[in-house]
Amino acid sequence: MNFTLSEEQEMLRKAARDFLTEKCPKTMVREMEQDERGYSPELWREMANLGWMGLVFPEKYGGSGMSFLDLAVLLDEMGRACLPAPFFSSVVLGGLPVVDSGSEEQKEQYLPGVASGETILTLALTEESAQYDAASIRVKAQADSGGYVIHGTKLFVPDAHIADYLLCVARTDEQKAAEKGISIFIVDAKSPGISYTPLKTIAGDKLYEVVFDGVKVPGGNILGELDGGWAIAQRVIERAAVASCCTILGTMQAVLEMTLEYAKDRRQFDHPIGSFQVIQHYCANMATDVDGTRFSTYQAAWRLSEGLSATKEVAVAKAWVTDAFGRVITLAHQIHGAIGVTLDHDLHFYTRHGKAAELSFGGGDFYRELVAQEMGL
Fold it and tell me: Is pTM beyond 0.90 here?
């Protein structure tokens, strides 16, 4: 099996790294954590001009027609930079479901704007249970005068405050089985009846509680078929889980590199600490976990990119990455010592951003259960 990036992917990786190294220093990440919007509109426009937002959209809607595997390469570099921008929300959570399941009219209405950076989408999925199964969807959408009225609360909605549209996963038929009575609505984020409350997060990213209080949505704003939304949501969750693994991989690679550099430069007893066997073994363990993360993540991304069944591969990747990140970041802090826990050092960015990504779209136990089910247990 060849895990080498193609020439085009290697060019994308290098261009992304060069751009983000210059345009997204940690000083900017610090500023955006305190900024109410959470991102730089100027940087967002530059990213759009590079074609990043439309990377995996068909060319007819302003995209480049590239694959999910190509997107994985880009997300890897974004994780490395701790990029503060609504890219994950707008492209992975919002844009790709429209590409997959939207009507031609919906694609023409929303995708060109997303590809140009002028329109921001996000997904309102998670509720009070914080579970990613159909039974956890309790927000209701009731038919009313040719449209629907949505009632209920969504939690941990990324970038809701700057989104133009929300993809809201809601229950439209309580009499059917849990997986059969769910629909997805494209909701104007400025509709009457929607309120937003910011949530305090470990990464300083922008997550919101979103309350739908009698929000009216036209019937034509259903994504896919009525009561057929859970299959779409499952695909979103799979892609989001792998995309999350990609950003964690970038985080872990950056942590490994900065730790190796520190181990070579930091001296104790007239020797670099990297010359001591215990530090060498720590770094070797970190490298092992980083490579394991890379292989499992890119295998899952490739299967999704090829349209193959990937339930087990996605679950293996997310379960592995969740644990591996914890091991890597713990060893990095042990090697850095006291300097690694100061806010003046960059390690805290990767610790916080990686932890947030680790918990998103299901933790290790959730995916270990899925692996067990795929093995017939």
Answer: yes
